[in-house]
Design goal:
Elements: E1 4-8, E2 20-24, H1 31-35, E3 39-40, E4 43-44, H2 50-57, E5 60-64, E6 68-70, H3 72-77, E7 81-83, E8 93-96, E9 100-103, E10 107-116, E11 121-126, E12 137-138, E13 141-143, E14 150-157, E15 163-165, E16 170-178, H4 179-183, E17 186-189, H5 195-211, H6 215-220, E18 229-231, E19 260-265, E20 271-273, H7 293-304, E21 308-311, E22 316-319, E23 324-325, E24 332-338, E25 342-343, E26 350-351, E27 354-358, E28 362-365, E29 370-375, E30 381-382, E31 385-387, E32 390-392, E33 399-400, E34 403-407, E35 411-414, E36 419-427, H8 428-431, E37 434-438
Parallel strand pairs: 1-37, 17-19, 18-37
Antiparallel strand pairs: 1-10, 2-5, 3-4, 5-16, 6-15, 7-10, 8-9, 9-30, 10-14, 11-13, 11-16, 12-14, 19-28, 20-21, 21-36, 22-23, 22-35, 24-27, 25-26, 27-34, 28-33, 29-32, 29-36, 31-34
């Protein structure tokens, strides 16, 4: 049998009516995306973006099997909910900026399931990718599930108002995360002697992006191995063995030094490496003396410090109503693409949402087999600008490290050094493993 991620249900009375279900992310694509047109008013939409689609499809979704209410009354009566009061640090702001806030969780939700992965695999437990965040902020963990099975507990930042989930709502996306290759990656700036070769490759990509429709999909993107999900009674000899994925043919191969992530800076150094937890003072996410305090602090920090964060290198003044940036250096491009629908007049009514692009003065390449999860800054709550997520094959495409997302406010300013996105290296050669449910 191939390596698998195992979702283990308890063998007690609660197993008869589990509060969550596990599904393939690829089989739980949001309805708005399935019905989204490829072109709206002459503009290409997210339906044509394979990086956006890869983020929707990767891994497994933990979905609610019954309604869940988070309220003062429910917290007192539901033993799955753990409330951390303000006197124990619950809901305390650790760091606050104009656009992003880092806050300690004040509610924990015990899903009742445990996760076990093969050796060298962790589980990235993240807010379901490219879904609306809503008022209840879920924090992301990178959980070491290989040494022994670990209970999945979801930390929330709750504002005190009644929050309701319906049966079938997506709770958390669980992505197998292969550590050995990405843990060895180092950040490397391009030597000046290498610039002519990289510039030639980059310019070729940019020209073809403009000239050839679907260039990234046709010539750079690599199709991902389909994942499967079985119960233990079904899985004997049925788990898919590793299959060769079809790869596009690329004229200019990315010649990147093995073991290094390379950023080619333009005029400003707008990316800095976040040190690993061993090199950085850890954030104390939980102060309360509860059983899972140590492990949750460790896993929240592991997600918080993985990869690199992109920042604005100048003040960016935005008027989202008419798609104008007042920043003279053209640091942000607004209203260019109508992609992401938002709920409007009811459960089944959506309207296109205007997408913003924050331009980052850096070009990104990764070693062979390493893609990049380009998402919002992990465990930051974003007020004005929220990045979407794409899985970009940055070993096959010289990618500018731009951030694409939405403006949540009509008019605002992102001050210099505002975090806008996080780049998480992702070993696609090993991370697309299958799943097994054990009941």
């Amino acid at each position: 049998m191939s390596d698998v991620i195992e979702f283990i249900y308890p063998d007690d009375e609660s197993a008869k009516e589990p509060i969550v279900d596990i599904t393939l992310a690829s089989e739980s694509i949001p309805e708005w995306y399935q019905t989204l047109e490829s072109i709206i008013d002459g503009v290409r939409t997210a339906k044509l973006c394979v990086s956006f689609a890869d983020a929707l499809r990767v891994g497994f979704l933990v979905k609610l099997n019954k309604p869940l209410e988070i309220s003062k009354r429910e917290i007192q009566s539901n033993d799955r909910l753990i409330h951390i009061p303000p006197e124990d640090g619950g809901g305390e702001v650790i760091q606050q900026g104009v656009n992003s806030t880092i806050t300690r969780p004040n509610v924990l939700f015990d899903t009742g399931i445990e996760i076990q992965t093969p050796s060298d695999y962790s589980t990235l437990a993240i807010h379901p990718l490219n879904r609306e965040y809503g008022e209840l902020h879920r924090l992301t963990q990178l959980i070491e599930t290989d040494k022994e099975k670990k209970r999945l507990v979801v930390p929330f930042v709750w504002d005190g108002r009644i929050s309701e989930f319906n049966k079938g709502d997506d709770l958390i996306q669980c992505i197998p995360y292969y550590r050995p290759t990405v843990n060895q990656l180092q950040l490397r700036e391009i030597d000046h002697a290498e610039l002519p070769k990289l510039n030639k490759m980059m310019e070729a990509d940019m020209q073809k992006l403009k000239r050839i429709e679907g260039y990234y999909r046709r010539f750079c993107w690599e199709s991902k191995r389909p994942q499967t999900l079985h119960t233990t009674s079904e899985c004997h000899n049925e788990i898919c063995e590793d299959s060769d994925s079809e790869s596009s043919q690329r004229e200019f191969e990315v010649d990147n030094q093995e073991g290094y992530v390379t950023f080619r800076y333009y005029e400003n150094n707008s990316i800095r490496q976040i040190p690993s937890p061993k090199q950085q003072q850890k954030v104390e996410w939980l102060k309360a003396n509860i059983e899972c305090k140590t492990s949750l602090n460790q896993w929240l920090n592991a997600a918080f410090t993985t990869g690199w964060v992109t920042y604005t290198h100048a003040d960016v003044r935005v008027n989202a109503s008419n798609g104008v940036s007042e920043q003279p250096q053209n640091d942000v491009s607004l209203g260019v693409i109508s992609q992401m629908p938002e709920k409007s007049l009811g459960d089944n009514h959506y309207m296109p949402k205007r997408v913003s692009k924050v331009l980052i003065d850096a070009q990104l390449n990764t070693p062979a087999g390493i893609s990049s999860i380009m998402t919002g800054p992990v465990n930051h709550r974003m007020k004005h600008y929220q990045a979407y997520t794409g899985i970009v094959d940055t070993d096959r495409f010289s990618c500018r490290a731009n951030s694409i997302g939405i403006c949540k406010s009509e008019e605002f300013t992102l001050p210099r050094k505002s975090p806008v996105s996080q780049i998480i290296p992702f070993d696609r050669e090993h991370s697309y493993i299958d799943g097994v449910i054990t009941k």
